[in-house]
Specification:
Elements lengths: L2 E6 L7 H16 L3 E6 L5 H12 L5 H25 L4 E4 L6 E3 L8 E4 L2 H8 L3 E5 L2 E4 L5 E3 L4 H12 L4 E6 L20 E3 H9 L7 H10 L3 E5 L7 E4 L4 E2 L2 E2 L7 E5 L2 E10 L4 H11 L7 E3 L8 E9 L3 H10 L1 H4 L3 E5 L2 E7 L9 H11 L6 E5 L2 E7 L3 H11 L18
Parallel strand pairs: 1-2, 1-9, 2-6, 3-6, 4-7, 9-11, 10-12
Antiparallel strand pairs: 4-5, 7-8, 11-12, 13-14, 15-20, 16-18, 16-19, 17-18, 20-22, 21-22
């Protein structure tokens, strides 16, 4: 038996009973002959509570001290879990992100992992211990400051450690039984997916699917680390995410034409009105956004009005970055030369994902027919080889997701999907 990395989210360790239940599952894996490394998130809503507390003390907390505060949540979880495992008669050692060798860049609150040197973790498991690592955190390479990886950072920590330790698999334990064809909180008849490729999972994750984060899947694809998404509340098989189909019994699981429908209501739309339609204008707009360290998603430019020679450019971005984007563009208004800005945070994105789109004509038509049948108006459209995304009104998202899910025959005929915990993170 090889080494297994397991990650448990906040809903799995939300209270003392949850921590003891997780400890039993970890010990079971150890008894089955595996070396076990565990990555753990903060308990329940601890991170959100710490953020609220920081904002009460300071409306704009310094990044370094903010990271120092937020990492406390995972350190509490790791210590308690190690205690619970020892109480079951097995040796466990807890490690912070920096002790585990998670090296990051210096960007506070959303650092990126640049290296993992897990010498202490390897030594611990070689001695027969279960190693418990605090997720979501690391240490900057240059200043040696504590950093955090942003939302979903524990998933990325787990995959990065799995790659560095040459683990057989990275098991991501959450509050649903795997990856579903849609969010089971919105589509009660969503089906669990047995296997999905890295490429399709990347598209789902970047389109709003909350079970796995984009950075986590990208890291797994780069190092070819199989991910098994499972529930910590049941013993059921979950969803395998890997480069090649898995075998179940005497047959391989086939890739579906359509993998699923994702949605995202965390974005806003910025429209730059009255942009001179000449070379360099779009570059100036997006250089301004890039210099403000803001990631954008969809971009659409209208056809230029012949009479004025002006056009409008719209793009979507995280709501949390909206104010920063508007301020950055306003500061550079004279350099760009636009007339005005419009901001809309009442939008939602619906995405249809599936590698089979490339070889199955009619998918696009069926997608838009389903939206039309649900009386959903489309504001922006973006496509790739295996994804179609549209922006609509936020209020229309649930009905749009259900309509598209049904139109492509993704509804389950059997039991409804079970959500055991709270957030799926």
């Amino acid at each position: 038996m090889g080494l297994v990395v397991q990650k448990y989210g906040g809903s799995s360790v939300a209270d003392a009973e949850g921590i003891k239940r997780v400890a039993k599952r970890i010990v079971e894996a150890k008894k089955n002959g595996h070396q076990v490394v565990v990555v753990v998130s903060a308990m329940g809503d601890t991170t959100d509570e710490l953020i609220d507390l920081a904002e009460q003390v300071s409306p704009m907390p310094a990044g370094r001290e903010f990271d120092m505060l937020l990492t406390a949540g995972e350190r509490i979880s790791m210590a308690l879990l190690a205690m619970a495992i020892k109480n079951l008669g097995h040796e466990a050692q807890s490690f912070t992100g920096s002790q585990a060798g998670v090296i990051t860049d210096s960007v506070h609150n959303k650092a990126r992992i640049i290296d993992v040197t897990p010498g202490r973790i390897q030594d611990s498991v070689d001695q027969g211990n279960i190693a418990i690592v605090a997720g979501f955190q690391g240490v900057s390479q240059d200043k040696k400051d504590i950093t955090t990886l942003g939302r979903g950072g524990s998933d990325t920590t787990a995959v990065a450690l799995a790659a560095a330790l040459n683990a057989e698999v990275c098991e991501i334990y959450t509050d649903v039984d795997g990856v579903f064809t849609a969010d089971p909180r919105v589509v009660k008849k969503a089906k669990k997916i047995d296997w999905i490729s890295f490429e399709d999972m990347l598209e789902l994750a970047s389109s709003g699917s909350k079970v796995l984060l984009h950075r986590c899947v990208e890291y797994a694809r780069r190092y070819n680390i199989p991910i098994h998404v499972r529930s910590s509340f049941s013993g059921l098989q979950g969803t395998w995410v890997s480069s090649e189909p898995i075998e179940q019994g005497d047959k391989k699981v086939e890739q579906a034409i359509i993998s699923g429908v994702a949605h995202d209501t965390s974005e806003a739309k910025v429209t730059v009105v009255g942009v001179p339609d000449k070379p360099g204008e779009a570059a100036a707009i997006f250089r301004t956004i890039a210099d403000a360290e803001i990631n954008i998603d969809m971009v659409v430019q209208n056809v230029s009005a012949a009479s004025t020679g002006l056009t409008d450019i719209s793009f979507t971005l995280p709501k949390t970055e909206g104010r920063k984007a508007i301020d950055a563009l306003e500061r550079n208004k004279s350099g760009i030369g636009f007339d005005s800005l419009r901001y809309d945070d009442q939008i939602g994105k619906i995405s249809l994902v599936g590698a089979g789109m490339k070889t199955n004509p009619g998918v696009t038509a069926a997608f838009f027919e389903a939206l039309s049948g649900a009386s959903v108006n489309i504001e922006l459209i973006s496509t790739s080889e295996i994804r179609i995304s549209v922006v609509t009104r936020a209020d229309d998202v649930p009905e749009a997701v259900r309509a598209v899910h049904t139109a492509f025959g993704l509804d389950s005929d059997s039991d409804e999907a079970v959500v055991y915990g709270g957030t799926g993170r």
